[in-house]
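Researcher: Sequence of Thioredoxin follows. Predict its structure.
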Amino acid sequence: MNRIIASLAVAIALALSATESRAAELIMFERAGCVWCARFNAEIAPIYAKTEESQVAPLRRVDLNSPLPPDLAGIDPGIFTPTFVVVKEGREIGRIRGYPGDAFFFGLLDRILSSTVLEPAKS
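Model: Prediction complete. Tokens:
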């Protein structure tokens, strides 16, 4: 039941985000040798682009062993990998530290997307 409600919220978010100028992004801060990054890569990465969540927040990977891209200069990646940060219009709107498994990952991500994408636009 919760997954159905979350899916509906994401569907509404998809409709609303189509009218906005800049979409959100799901930034994955990762580094080589990270066991939890490898688990995410095995369980989620192959399907993420096919999910409703990816339509709202496409996945972008950032290697912490490389310099941060200039557009992420204001975002603290933290020290744990993976760290997932949802960024919209250059600011952080939510974060998931670590990889808690597929069900928890999508539950946490849906909560971030539905609470921030559905908030009223600021004038």
